[in-house]
Amino acid sequence: MESHSQKVNRKLNTFINKIIFLGKNNIFEFKGLKLYPSEIHLILVMSEAPTNASQMAKTLNVTKGAVSQTISRLEKKGILIKNKDPYLKNEITLAFTPLGNEVFQKYRQISRAVEDEFINKIENFREDELFIIGKFMDEILQLADTIHKIRNNP
Questions:
Q1: What's this model's pTM, rounded to 2 decimal places?
Q2: DSSP 8-state assignment for residue 62
Q3: How far apart are CA 80 and CA 73, in angstroms?
Q4: Neighbouring residues of 100: CB distance < 8 A, sequence distance ≥ 6
Q5: What DSSP assignment string belongs to 16-44?
Q6: Of 45, 46, 24, 47, which is closest to residue 36 (Cα–Cα)?
Q7: What would the DSSP string read from start to end of 77-127?
Q8: pLDDT for 149 beyond 90
Q9: Is the separation of the CB atoms in 94 and 84 below 8 Å?
Q10: CA atoms lying within 13 Å on the CB side of residue 87
Q11: Which residues does residue 95 pair with via DSSP β-bridges, in sequence order?
């Protein structure tokens, strides 16, 4: 017979697998453009705080080369404009084009609708239950960091 801990573990793994599947197949289409998850992630990072490719790579936990390739794809699609920084010789600045702003606004609108659905679900819980869920999520996030360290330092 499955224990409560095993049931939670199984359900959490099922949830994670569904999220991974959604993420991998999450092609965002807008005005005839197809934007892939890596492109959307970079757009989201840029919208929060425009940074250089090295900082974006660190934020996204990918290589600087991967960020550069994604920037190039977004530039070709007309989403970003890449300019050399006049003050820093080897740095570039990025800016959204009008189309890039539209893409970001539409994606943000869809994301907010998803977030509203999530909020509607968790509003059915009592404060004490939400406290336990929050504590559980803190532990899971720490576990993710631990797993990352173990895998990268065998």
A1: 0.69
A2: S
A3: 9
A4: 43, 74, 78, 79, 80
A5: HHHHHHHHHT--EEETTEEE-HHHHHHHH
A6: 24
A7: TTSEEEEE-SSSTT-EEEEE-HHHHHHHHHHHHHHHHHHHHHHHHHTTS-H
A8: no
A9: no
A10: 1
A11: 81
Phi/psi class of residue 36: alpha, beta or left (left: φ > 0; alpha: ψ in -120 to 50)? Answer: beta
* 60 CB neighbour count, 10 Å cutoff: 16
CA distance 148 to 12: 18
Q: Are 80 and 93 in contact (CB under 8 A)?
A: no
Q: What is the pLDDT of residues 66-115, one digit of tens each?
A: 988 999 999 999 999 987 777 777 777 788 999 999 999 999 999 899 89
How does the average pLDDT of the chain come out, rounded? 87
Q: What are phi and psi of 82, to 5 degrees?
A: -110, 125
Packing angle between helix 37-48 and helix 53-60, nearest 10 degrees? 120
Residue 51 DSSP code: -
